[in-house]
Amino acid sequence: MPRGRIRAKIRRSTLYTFACSRFNPSKEDGPHNIQGPGYSRLVYCNQPHLHEHHPLKYCSNYISTTKYNIITFLPKALFEQFRRVANLYFLLAAALSLTAFSPFKPLPTIAPLVFVVGLSMAKEALEDWSRFIQDLKVNLRKVSLHKKDGEFDHKPWKKVRVGDIVKIEKDQFFPADLLLLSSSFEDGICYVETMNLDGETNLKVKRALESTLPLDDDPSFREFKATIKCEDPNPSLYTFVGNLEYNHQTYPIDPTQILLRDSKLRNTGYVYGVVIFTGHDSKVMQNATKSPSKRSTIEKQMDKVIYILFSLLVFISLISSVGFIRITKRELPNWWYLKVWDRKNTYFNPDKVLESGFYHLITALMLYGYLIPISLYVSIEVVKVLQAVFINQDINMYDEETGTPAQARTSNLNEELGQVDTILSDKTGTLTCNQMDFLKCSIAGNAYGTRASDVEIAAAKQMDMATDSDDQGQNGIQGSFKSFELETVITSKDEHASKAGIKGFSFEDSRLLNGNWLQEPNSDVILLFFRILSICHTAVPEQNEETGVFTYEAESPDEGSFLVAAREFGFEFCKRTQSSIFVKERYPSYQEPIKREFKLLNLLDFTSKRKRMSVIIRDESGQILLLCKGADSIIFDRLSKNGRTYEQATTKHLNDYGEAGLRTLALAYKKLDEAEYTAWNEEFNKAKTSVGGDREAMLERVSDKMERDLILVGATAVEDKLQKGVPQCIDKLAQAGLKIWVLTGDKMETAINIGFACSLLRQGMKQICVSSTNSDGLIPDPKKTVKDNILMQITNATQMIMLEKDPYAAFAVIIDGKTLTYALEDDMKYQFLNLAVQCASVICCRVSPKQKAVVTRLVKEGTGKITLAIGDGANDVGMIQAADIGVGISGCEGMQAVMASDFSIAQFRFLERLLVVHGHWCYKRIAQMICYFFYKNIAFGLTIFYFESFAGFSGQTVYDDNYMLVFNVVLTSLPVISLGVFEQDVDSEVCLQFPALYQQGAKNLFFDWYRIFGWMANGLYNSFTAFFLNISVFSDKAFRVGGQTADMNAVGTSMLTCIIWAVNCQIALTMSHFTWIQHIFIWGSVATLYLFLLVYGMMVGHLQTASPVLLEVLAPAPVYWSITLSVTVACILPYLVHISFHRMFYPLDHHVIQEMKYYKKDIMDQRMWTRERSKARQSTKIGFTARVDARIRMLKEKMMQRRFSMHKSVLPR
């Protein structure tokens, strides 16, 4: 118990009629029949030593989520590396470099491979080490464990065994799946938070069996022994079947007695439990998925390019070998003066030409290996690491409140961020803050509450922008738009922004505060409204001794916010006993609170099926009242004829609140006379104490009978506080063309409310709710009946969408976990997916962690598009791992999601910048970099092949070996790295203002086959131009004043110079964004060539192959400089013409924006810039922009109708 708090002691079981009812089972409803397969678990309670040998030896409580261990790391990591096609080729090349047929020394071939593979393996090891450390922290958590003779001691979680008795205290996590034996409450009630399992913030009520309630202290376990027979380990979070054999009797166990691992004990001092499932047998771990190995789409496509280049390599090697065989057979015997042939030399042997040809093929494969550059992988690794550093250092994704930056936990998927098609998001803790604020209310047909919700603020600002950019010049219409509460909304928010807030209460309206409600008309109805808020609940108050302020332990945040609101209105709930509720009312005088007692006669608690809650009380005057709150659809159906006075006005207010993204409940009451209540109560008690399977139905029938003929009082509107910037982020992502699915463990009503709050749902959007109904037990095959019904719903909904004529019509599909179980089966899942992808929004509620992963996998595999999953809890780990990209939010639900993620951010709103800015940049950078790399290596590598035809296919290269080494490592590496790290087609602000730019990545415009083959053709042209222009100039001609002709070294050096100039000028034309770094890298690389040739030429006598070719041979010859200029211009001219033609006649979005920025239209012509911004978004039906567009269309229609009516009225008759 926290220090300074006072809690009333009550038997909490009296608060629940439906949630955790207990009754003595009859013979018909006795122990579960658990014989047969799937029900073999046998647990000896308080005797864990009996589970040390087979067949009762169960897994330990040690858990591991790592991909590797000490033994498996080397083989598994090597397998992952050599899954890459290129790495296999380089491994083969490295092995061949050790043979006598290699044209190169082994070191230049082996060293890059070792570096690339070693770096990737080191990254894998580091990431897995982080998972190991997280597992270690969990395994070493302490829990109070029964040793013997009623003594408990603290042991680490990993030491917990099946059959152990554990004691869990308030706010601790459960270390394994437990059977609840007793709690600090005398009736065995306890409250459990399952946020880590299903994302729900509402507390679940669990209740121990009657027979184990005496086991409520440590000594009582001295002689305790029992046996549990139950189901085998399975991933179902919401079911459990088992029996407890204790004191020669057998008791059925159901889910209300099971405490699941990773859920937390709340609002309860302590509980005792016996361990049933440990470690990977526990239900949460059964829902876990193995850590996958992820590769980006570009990397997979790059493998296909490697296949093509390898095919080209084999093709030209075969041509070279055929040429070599021909020359060896026909010409070599006549070249006796070369002295290359003797009978012992198998490489040049006219008698064995096929064998010689095979050996030459090996040489050729290595000689032309520059077509498949291993330096590409080195450069990509370096570039991705630097991109990850920039993501980590982005100050705009730094959360000041928590001091948490964004983190790229793996750099393998940077470019994938720019190609996402579908986002699958958790709700609680990801979109919301787990906080409810009482914001507005409707009482007696009057709306109260002036403060705007976050959704209203965002929509009003968007409406203002939309009207500013309206080109039609219709002042009347614009004036109508401006009246969309913009000024009121913004002002109301600004006025109170500086006021100190009260958690759970953001209401602002002086008419109800400080006792002013007493001056309102219908003050008697307002009094009833406040009393319903303060009395109709199951919460328990706690008073802080130091401050005297009451706080409330409520089952749900909604209920807590109602009590805080009632307190602020002057009706403070202060005490609860077994039979009474006490409220301090500032009525009739606001200055003098009076403590009033209300006798609690009955409480009909809230369930997801009932969607309402009622209390029956007797006030101080003796009047019996039923106070009820619930979903408006449920309450309105139960109103009496004279209780509908405020129905029309309240309905309008409820619609307005829903449009503002608020969660609503309707409040009603009913007066009862003594005889009516007495007769009903006898019937109710009879149903409550009945035995049999129809007990629940009897209770519901009797309760429903009472909850009729109600009188409407009003409605509440609570804001489920979204994380900062969530509506704006979702709107921007929708404009970028991204689809957003919400997968949550919450109830359907809660999920729908959040859908409205996030603008994933809106008024006018057609909701398709796919649900399963319980079939009659008399039907021969109830499962088939349910499946057929679900399939019919899906088929009908799909046909409805296809037949829809309205282009602005929007659909949303909403499905619960139970129905999803059927919809995800093999014979139905693609029909469900087909329906979902045609809808603007998809919301899956009451889903388990495993279902989240299965849905994610279905979207990924069924659509073939890139998926991103984002969540913040342990229940999101499977989804995060199943998606192409997993993003973890470092929120209040622990670090499990972050540890399993590829990227982590502190708030959902940072996802906008991560995708729209960094994703867009990284995709274009990597795509352009890879295309350029293939281009430059083809341009360089094919010149070696061309020279072979001039050198008799002898395996001789035109370049010095050291030239070939420095080409990729020194002379062209830094420019391509600068392209991959610093390139920006537009700056970050423009990316956010023109979200449609993101679709360039989603449509893969910069790494499609057209562009890849275009760059390859460019490389082929450059190689052809560089080689043949140099050969034509230097062949059989004097090129110096003294009449000297060029040798092979001079031709090779000149050719290298031309290639270096051409590829560096080409990359300069490719870049859109220059800094001093790019200039240094590009032109510095050209300068480095000359510096290298000078230094290399000075190494004569130290290096066998060195010669002063530049200083003494080429530099004095004007033809060297002229051929360099001619080849460079000839190489880049076609590309320059190509990009100029496209910019003029087929410009892409970023071309247009670059030109506007160049002419400063964003500054000089704001109207044009704003108009272009409004156009630069994908057509979407979600987000507050879509909501505003719908509102504008409605206003225009109304205006046109009004004008038509006016025009019609003035026509002459």
TrEMBL record:
Coiled coil: none annotated. The keyword Transmembrane applies. It holds the Pfam family PhoLip_ATPase_C. The active site is at D426. Residues 898-1147 form the P-type ATPase C-terminal domain. GO terms for cellular component: membrane. It is a multi-pass membrane protein. It catalyses: ATP + H2O + phospholipidSide 1 = ADP + phosphate + phospholipidSide 2. The chain crosses the membrane at residues 305-327, 358-378, 933-951, 963-982, 1012-1031, 1051-1069, 1081-1099, 1119-1137. Residues 43-110 form the P-type ATPase N-terminal domain. Its main location: membrane. GO terms for molecular function: ATP binding; ATPase-coupled intramembrane lipid transporter activity; magnesium ion binding. Keywords: ATP-binding, Isopeptide bond, Magnesium, Membrane, Metal-binding, Nucleotide-binding, Translocase, Transmembrane, Transmembrane helix, Ubl conjugation. The keyword Membrane applies. Belongs to the cation transport ATPase (P-type) (TC 3.A.3) family. Type IV subfamily. This is Phospholipid-transporting ATPase. It comes from Penstemon smallii.
